[in-house]
Amino acid sequence: MRRGRLGAWAAVGLGAVYLLAPLIATFEFSLRMRRGAYSFDAFRAVFASGKFHQAFLYSTVLALVTIVVAAAIVVPTACFVRLRLPRLAGIVEFITLLPLVIPAIVLVFGYIRLYGSSSVLPLTSTSLGADALLMFGYVGLGLPYMYRAVDTALQAIDARTLTEAAESQGAGPLTILIEVMLPNIRAGVLSGAFLTFAIVIGEFTMASLLDRSAFGPYLQLIGASRAYEPAALAIIAFALTWACLGLIQLVGGAPPAAARR
Amino acid sequence: MTSAPSSRPFARRPDWGAWLGVAPFFLFAAMFLIAPTAWLLVGAFEDRDGAFTLANIARLGQPSIRLSYWLSLEVSAASAALGALFGLGLALVALCGGLPQWVRPTLMTFSGVASNFAGVPLAFAFMATLGRLGLVTVLLKNLGVDLYAAGFNILTFWGLTVTYLYFQIPLMVLVVAPAIDGLKPEWAEAAETLGASPLQYWRMIALPVLMPSALGAALLLFANAFGAIATAYALTGSSFNIAPILLYAEIRGDVLHDPNLGYAMAVGMLAITGFSNLAYLALRSRSERLR
Predict the structure, then answer these.
(1) Pseudo-torsion of CA B45, B50, B51, B56, nearest 10°?
(2) How far is B262 from chain A (nearest CA, A)?
(3) Cα dihedral A99, A104, A110, A115 in deg (nearest 10)
(4) Do B115 and A260 count as a contact with CB atoms less than 8 A apart?
């Protein structure tokens, strides 16, 4: 038993080394900008850059709009499917899994052809249209996580009794959705929101192919042209991911199983 | 929809209110998930004049495209197999290795973060770690192990595979943990009572029970790596031609000089990720029934 435990420690230790080494190495690299001494110069250079602010602001705003639209689509659907249209559960679940099956690059390729400048709905020919297209793409990327989080939260409450109680008090469906359901599944919506944020904030493929100056393409550009700033940006991105996932635990949502790009 | 108390939640007449509530979801799915994919699917089987043809699919066999698919398959398979192996091992040790209570939540939380830490920043992190001037490269060199002299390069197959493992191993831990939790302590006790050694218990009971979940998870990892592009693109530019990078170049600049061939490439990728995801779902429902 004792030897077994020693082996277990060794295995976990090895795993920890593999998982932590890149973080330590990246942090150390990010401090090397000034010759001969460790400094935060790379971070300072990043934060002082106007392009960084622009790209980060763009992606943050887009992520927030994505979250609002995703919640507006997912919450009513999850509620109605659970309460009044249970026979749609299968098809709805299938659709929410589609973004995991269709690679983002394939999806955005379809967007470009379907909503290109010569199509019926030429979203890509205006800047606002392309922003909207990217936003809907991100709603898709976040859909599996948002739906699962909301549906799990719904499972945990007695949605039917709540609805009937509200109806007996004369509440309309919109009131029920916003004032009764939403507060009760807040943790689910929030954990879906934070995970969506973590996924889309640095997304590269869709943003780059739709020519949006978002954070992901900015990162790629810096990576191709600078030496130390990329390491600083990687640390910032890791901290952001950590913050989002930490907030999920804080609001008490379900942990994100099978989260992936 | 009426606001009167509904004593009959499953009324026979169509529930228009509820249908109105789910309409945005289906509109969204039709416009931004199904129609764009269907467009590519149709285009892949059309020639320039819109007539049905299989020629585009056949032309996926031309050397440059076949090579890119092959490279993608290799990287995805290697990172999925190694990720599944290490991830399963790590999860088993952390969950059943008799380690203190705090190991499990720490590993799970970290896995949640690391499995989401991908894309461009992951490429940066591995450049700083195993690049020519990376910390680990330099440390090992000081210890007398010169990775780059030994033929390693972060911009190659193994470099990319090691980088992908950073999100594959944690993803495996997350996906396989519920299956490990499903191993009932009674089984181990029963095996012990019947005189089985721990090794026999693992070899003849635990691992066979875990196998469908582990295989399914490996397929999920495979699809996960196959569709990924940002990490590889940021790491190697367009010098390492995996299938998504070739498709990216095609979308950007029509490098194949044939839009329908581009559609066929996209559909080929979709077929591979679709197949491995379906197999994953099938194996998962099978292992859920076993439990």
Answers:
(1) -30
(2) 9
(3) 100
(4) yes
Nearest chain B Cα distance for residue A216, angstroms: 7
Q: What's the mean per-residue pLDDT of chain A?
A: 91
Minimal CA separation from B275 to chain A, in Å: 9
Of these ranges, A167-181, B3-17, B157-171, B253-267, the one predicted with the greatest mean pLDDT is B157-171
Among chain A residues, the shortest Cα distance to B232 is held by A220
Bigger pLDDT: A127 or B258?
Answer: A127
CA distance A168 to B45: 56
- Whether chain B has a CB inside 8 Å of the CB on A171: the answer is yes
Read off the pLDDT of each residue in A141-149 and give the average, rounded to a whole number.
95
| Confidence band for B269, pLDDT divided at 50, 70 and 90 | very high
Q: pTM of the prediction?
A: 0.90
Is residue B1 one of the residues assigned to a domain? no
User: Nearest Cβ partner of B228 from A95, A195, A261?
Assistant: A261
Cβ contacts from A onto B, under 8 A: 299
Looking at A31-49, list the stretches that DSSP marks H as alpha helix, in order from N- to C-terminal side.
41-48
- Of A68-77, A250-259, B141-150, the range with the highest mean pLDDT is A68-77
For residues B59 and B264, give the distance between their C-alpha atoms in angstroms, rounded to a whole number. Answer: 9
Contact indicator for A120, B244 with CB cutoff of 8 Å? no
Q: How far is CA B271 from the centre of its chain?
A: 14
Token pair 């329908």: residue: B260
> Could you report the predicted ipTM of this complex, rounded to two decimals?
0.90
In a domain, residue B19? The reply is no
Decide: residue A90, CB within 10 A, 0-12 exposed, 13-18 middle, 19+ buried.
exposed
Q: State the CB neighbour count (10 A cutoff) for residue B54.
A: 11
> What CATH number is given to the structural domain containing B112?
1.10.3720.10
Matching residue, tokens 């606002």:
A128
- Which CATH architecture describes the domain A50-251? Orthogonal Bundle (1.10)
Residues A259, B124: C-beta atoms closer than 8 Å: no
Chain B: nearest CA to A5, how far in angstroms? 6
Judged by a CB distance cut-off of 8 A, whether residue A36 touches chain B is no
A112 at the B interface (CB within 8 A)? Answer: yes
Q: Looking at the domain assignment, is residue B118 inside a domain?
A: yes
Of B26, B112, B166, Cβ closest to residue A256: B112
